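User: I'm curious whether this sequence folds into something compact or stays loose and floppy. Could you predict its structure so I can see for myself?
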Amino acid sequence: MRSDDTEVTNKSSSHAKYLSELIDKIIEEPNKYNKDENLRTALRSQGAFSRYSTTTRRGVSLNTLKAQANIDVIGGFSNLDRRRQEARRLVEDSLVETEKRDYRSKSAVSNRNKELQQDIIRLYCDMWQLTSAFGRALEYYTECANESGNPEVIQLCKKHIRQLYEVVSPTQLQKVEQELRRRLKLELIS
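Assistant: Here's the prediction. I'll summarize afterward.
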């Protein structure tokens, strides 16, 4: 019977030490633990903290934790509880900061998306104006060639217009538009 009591005492003692070491880790790096909902809940009260368990550790009663902490933890249970409260505050503060940072990044992405959408609209307007000016320039070029009455100039004009249409044809403009969309999508993603 004595060996069973010792085993329970050792398990409880190791749980008090385990919780003390866990608090030290939390205080050192609260950001690492702020997403663990079970741990945040356990840090809110003494009873929940004493019952905190993991896959390798089982919780104990509050009285057992107090007794063992007074033996195994420097400063006893009062020091353990004070550090628990500090760890809770640090974890909650880091969670708020993480949420703010996530919100800022989401709003920054949203603002950047709005800017890019405005850029797309401006690019479409510019492309329409350029296409319109290009069409008018070609018409003027053709008129000038026809007014000259010179068959060689007219043929040369037709040849140049074909070459220009190969560069700035509706098909080419669609390719440019697709490339612009692809680049903007890549920027929206990153």
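Summary: Residues 1-13 have pLDDT under 50 and may be disordered. The helical segments are 2-28, 37-42, 46-50, 62-72, 76-148, 151-167, 170-189.
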